[in-house]
Write a structure and sequence with these properties.
It contains 17 helices and 24 strands. The protein is α+β, with helices and mostly antiparallel strands. The N and C termini lie close together (4 Å). Guanosine-5'-monophosphate binds next to helix 13.
Length: 460
């Protein structure tokens, strides 16, 4: 998963992008980068490992003038977390420049890359996104949107892109519409972002979504839209954006994430009640809204039973105490006052490997809870994602290797209840049709990648 952002037509576009990236930090913490273009057509890039606040400074933005900029926050996968793979990609060719930032995963990147290498291309990274840059370089068109349309022809899988070609900002979304992308206005200019919360922070006004299969071009000639891949693919918006990824203050796929999560929580309470429970609590922060929905529907009090430490960096020193729950203990603590002697419902948005959950349950028990009833506001995750989410191999997914009873035993709860697939799809705004739910259902909207994704630098 990644966050992308772009600005056209505002002075200090790099500084605006810098601010926007702070609001997209939750979509990727591995690296952050910005490319800007100044009035003399000079493109400058800065890409750093780590958080936006660690790598990019307001001071540095002052040395990146211009009305055109794009930015990226990256959530990498194991093995490909290097500066070479940080974005935006910036390349110079035919006397011009092109810069690109990508959210998603191109499922046929390896095949395209093999073809390009066969024809003489030399790659600088292992990222799937770089194939688009090479194809842009080969285009014979002079219109930026035509160049991008040609470059994307035959590209499969998930992509939301912000691209700079010359003096033009482009935004593109794949025909399935896997990932969210919106356009806003800011003064006389435009802002493009993965989520609306990034428009809010820079004071932009939401205009609309970039539509699936659409390329939008923004430059001195104004805003132009082209539907380059008209309704050629079934709509497959990632339902996990509503469940876990996006921020609750965002609208994704034109729906409120907060409302989606509350509805998921309410539906979960209807499907999976916990008759003996005294109270409900969330695993903060991602399941706060779902727990609120569960508590409302079940008329149980919502308590703050788990406290999360927000100041633990991505790389903290391994705790000295041994045991499988040590990592969890560094990040969370339980509130004894709330839990002693109580039968509790612990709401979380998802269980992936089950390791965090198991640690949390043992914390809750150690704090004195009498019964622990786990409720999950999405169905069991049984398969990998090919569309930009770093889900582990199938074998590491606890719901692939264990039955419901097996998972309950493994994580140490008195009862376990997941939301049903239909319950989830009916709860999200704009559902039940038009969503990808492959990691839950096995119903993949595209062919699975033919070769190992890691070779192509499985990206965000
Ligand atoms: P597990 O018990 O499977 O180890 O962890 C479950 C927790 O991981 C849940 O709180 C859920 O919010 C969180 N989670 C779900 N998907 C992802 C993901 O893609 N990345 C990260 N970092 N956490 C996730
Ligand atoms: Fe989203 Fe799951 Fe589909 Fe991936 S497989 S796009 S995480 S719903
Ligand atoms: Mg969580």
């Amino acid at each position: 998963m990644c966050g992308i952002f772009g600005v056209y037509g505002q002075p200090n576009a790099a500084a605006i992008t810098h601010l926007g990236l702070y609001s997209l930090q939750h979509r990727g913490q591995e690296s952050a980068g910005i490319v800007s273009v100044d009035g003399n057509h000079i493109a400058r890039g800065s890409r750093k490992m780590g958080l936006v606040s660690e790598g990019l400074s307001a001071q540095e933005m002052e040395s990146m003038p211009g009305v055109l900029a794009i930015g990226h926050t990256r959530y990498s996968t194991a093995g490909s977390s290097t500066l070479d793979n940080a974005q935006p990609v910036l390349a110079r060719f035919k006397g011009g420049h092109v810069a690109l930032a990508h959210n998603g995963n191109i499922t046929n990147a390896t095949e395209i890359r093999d073809d390009l290498e066969e024809a003489g291309s030399i790659f600088a990274s292992t990222m799937d996104s770089e194939v688009v840059v090479h194809r842009l370089a080969r285009s014979r068109s002079t219109e930026p949107e035509q160049m991008l349309a040609e470059a994307l022809d035959g590209v499969e899988g998930a992509y939301c892109l912000v691209v700079i070609i010359g003096e033009t900002l482009l935004a593109a979304r794949d025909p399935h519409g896997f990932r969210p992308l919106v356009i806003g206005t800011l003064g006389d200019g435009y802002v493009v972002a993965s989520e609306t919360c990034a428009l809010d922070i820079v004071g932009a006004t939401l205009m609309r979504e970039v539509m699936p299969g659409e390329i939008v071009a923004m430059d001195s000639r104004g805003l132009r839209s082209s539907q380059v891949f008209p309704q050629s693919k079934p709509l497959a918006r990632c339902v996990f954006e509503h469940v876990y990824f996006a921020r609750p203050d965002s609208y994704v796929f034109s729906g409120s994430v907060d409302r989606a999560r509350r509805a998921l929580g309410r539906q979960l309470a209807r499907e999976q009640p916990a008759p003996t429970a005294d109270l409900v609590f969330a695993v903060p922060d991602s399941s706060n809204a779902a727990a609120l929905g569960y508590a409302e529907e079940s008329r149980l009090p919502l308590e703050l039973a788990l406290i999360r430490n927000h100041y633990i960096g991505r790389t903290f020193i391994q705790p000295t105490q041994s045991g499988r729950d040590a990592k969890v203990k560094v990040k969370y603590n339980a509130v004894k006052e709330v839990l002693v002697g109580k039968s509790v419902v612990m709401v979380d948005d998802s269980i992936v490997r089950g390791t965090t959950t198991r640690g949390l349950v043992s914390l809750i028990r150690a704090a004195g809870a009498r019964e622990v009833h786990m409720r999950v506001s999405s169905p069991p995750i049984t398969g990998p994602c090919y569309y930009g989410i770093d889900t582990p191999n199938r074998e590491e997914l606890i719901a692939h290797t264990h039955t419901l009873e097996g998972i309950a035993k493994q994580i140490g709860v008195d009862s376990l209840g997941y939301l049903s697939l239909q319950g989830m799809l009916h709860a999200v705004p704009g559902g039940p049709q038009g969503f990808c739910h492959a990691c839950f259902s096995g119903d993949y909207p595209t062919a699975a990648p033919l070769v190992d994704l890691m070779r192509a630098g499985k990206d965000c």
